[in-house]
Specification:
With about 325 residues, this protein is an alpha/beta fold. The protein folds into two domains: about 40-120 and about 260-315, D-Maltodextrin-Binding Protein, domain 2 (3-Layer(aba) Sandwich); about 125-260, Periplasmic binding protein-like II (D-Maltodextrin-Binding Protein, domain 2, 3-Layer(aba) Sandwich), CATH 3.40.190.10. It is built from eleven helices and 13 strands. The chain has helices at about 10-30, 55-65, 80-85, 100-110, 140-145, 175-185, 205-215, 245-250, 270-280, 285-290, 305-315, and strands at about 40-50, 70-75, 95, 115-130, 135-140, 165-170, 200, 220-225, 230-235, 235, 240-245, 260-265, 295. Strands 1, 2, 3, 4, 6, 7, 8, 9, 12 and 13 form a ten-stranded mixed beta sheet that branches. It has a three-stranded mixed beta sheet with strand order 5-10-11. β10 (about 235) and β11 form a beta hairpin. α2 packs antiparallel against α10 (about 285-290) and α3 (about 80-85) packs parallel to α4.
Length: about 325
C-alpha cells in the first residue's frame, strides 16, 4: 500500500527552521569543549512580529559578533505567533507590534508563564498608495470608510475613477490587530466593524509594498520601517492636522497611528536572554532599529529630536 504525504509550504519552512536551529544547537554542543568557561554561551530563540523581524535579525547579528558562543535564532510569523510561542514556552523572547491582550496574559499565567513587557522602539503605521495616485492625505475617518468598504472608489476623495483595492496583513499580525482597532473600529471598544470582505490579506509587509507599487488603485498599511520611495506614504489626520509618519511625529505622537514595539520574556530575563535584552536596549542595539527605519526607545526622553542627525546615523 502506497501512502502519499502532502506538505504545505508553511510546514516545509517550519521543518527547515527547526532543522537549522537543531543543527546550530548540536554544533554549539559539539564545540563546547573549546569554549572559554568565562565566556557567555547558550541559545536564544526569538519568535514573532514580522514588522520588526529585520531589526531583530540585525540586533542578533551584532550581538553574536560580541558574544560568538551565544547562538540567536530569529523567526517571524506575526505577533500572535510569537505570543503563542511564549505562552507555550517554545521561545525565550516574543516580539510584538502590539501589546499583549489581557486574555493572553491570563492564559500565560495559567501555564506558569508571567510575561514581562519591554518597549524596545517606536513605530508609525504608514498608509501607502501608488506614487501615481493623486491622493496625498486622508483622515482616520476616511481610512475607516475605505477599509470597511463604505467607500469603494477613489473619486470620492478627488482621485481617479478606480475601484479601491484594500490590502491588509493577515490576522496573526500585530499590525493587522492594531489597524483594525484604531482605524476599522475607530479606537472604540464597543465598535465591532470588520475589514471589508474584499480586503486582500497578505503575508508580509514587503508583499504589500510590491502590490501597491504595481497597482494604482491599491492602498495598504505597514510599519514605517518598510516605507520606501517605490510607494507614497499618506499624511494622516485624526482631526484637522495632517502629519506624515516620520521620526518627530512618532516621538510626539502627533502622527495618529504611532505605537510601541515590544519584546516579551517569561518573567525577568536571566542568563543569555538577559544579556541579549540588555544589548537590544543598549546604544548599539538601538542603532539597529534606527537603521531599519524605526524610532529608538530613548528618543522619547526628548521633546524633539534632530531628524537630520538620526538620518545621518541611518545612512
Amino acid at each position: 500500500m502506497k501512502v502519499k504525504l502532502k506538505f504545505t509550504r508553511q510546514s516545509l519552512c517550519s521543518a527547515l527552521a527547526s532543522i537549522l536551529i537543531l543543527s546550530a544547537m548540536l554544533f554549539a554542543a559539539g564545540c563546547s569543549e573549546d569554549i572559554d568557561p568565562n565566556e557567555p554561551s547558550g541559545f536564544v530563540q526569538i519568535k514573532g512580529s514580522d514588522t520588526i523581524v529585520n531589526a531583530a535579525q540585525k540586533i542578533a547579528e551584532e550581538f553574536m559578533k560580541d558574544y560568538p558562543h551565544v547562538f540567536v535564532a530569529v523567526t517571524g510569523g506575526g505577533s500572535g505567533v510569537g505570543i503563542a510561542s511564549l505562552i507555550n514556552k517554545t521561545c525565550d523572547i516574543a516580539t510584538a507590534s502590539r501589546e499583549m491582550k489581557p486574555k493572553e496574559i491570563e492564559m500565560a499565567e495559567q501555564r506558569g508563564v508571567f510575561p514581562k513587557e519591554f518597549t524596545v522602539a517606536y513605530d508609525g503605521v504608514a498608509v501607502i498608495v501608488s506614487k501615481d495616485n493623486p491622493i496625498d492625505k486622508l483622515t482616520i475617518e476616511d481610512l475607516h470608510r475605505i477599509f470597511t468598504g463604505k467607500v469603494t472608489n477613489w473619486e470620492e476623495f478627488g482621485g481617479k475613477d478606480l475601484h479601491i483595492v484594500t490590502l491588509s496583513r493577515e490576522v496573526s499580525s500585530g499590525t493587522h490587530m492594531y489597524f483594525k482597532e484604531e482605524v476599522v473600529q475607530l479606537g472604540k471598544k464597543d465598535n465591532h466593524d470588520e475589514f471589508s470582505p474584499e480586503t486582500l490579506l497578505l503575508t508580509s509587509s514587503q508583499t504589500i509594498v510590491e502590490e501597491v507599487a504595481a497597482n494604482d488603485a491599491a492602498i495598504g498599511y505597514l510599519g514605517m520601517g518598510y516605507v520606501s520611495d517605490r510607494t507614497k506614504a499618506l499624511l494622516v489626520a485624526k482631526g484637522d492636522e495632517f502629519h506624515p509618519p516620520d521620526i518627530n511625529n512618532v516621538i510626539s505622537k502627533a502622527y495618529p497611528l504611532s505605537r510601541g514595539l515590544y519584546f516579551y520574556t517569561n518573567g525577568e530575563p536571566n542568563g543569555v536572554t538577559k544579556l541579549f535584552m540588555d544589548f537590544a536596549l543598549s546604544p548599539k542595539g538601538q542603532q539597529q532599529f534606527i537603521e531599519t527605519g524605526f524610532v529608538p526607545v530613548k528618543a522619547e526622553e526628548k521633546e524633539t529630536m534632530d531628524e537630520g542627525t538620526l538620518n545621518a546615523q541611518k545612512d
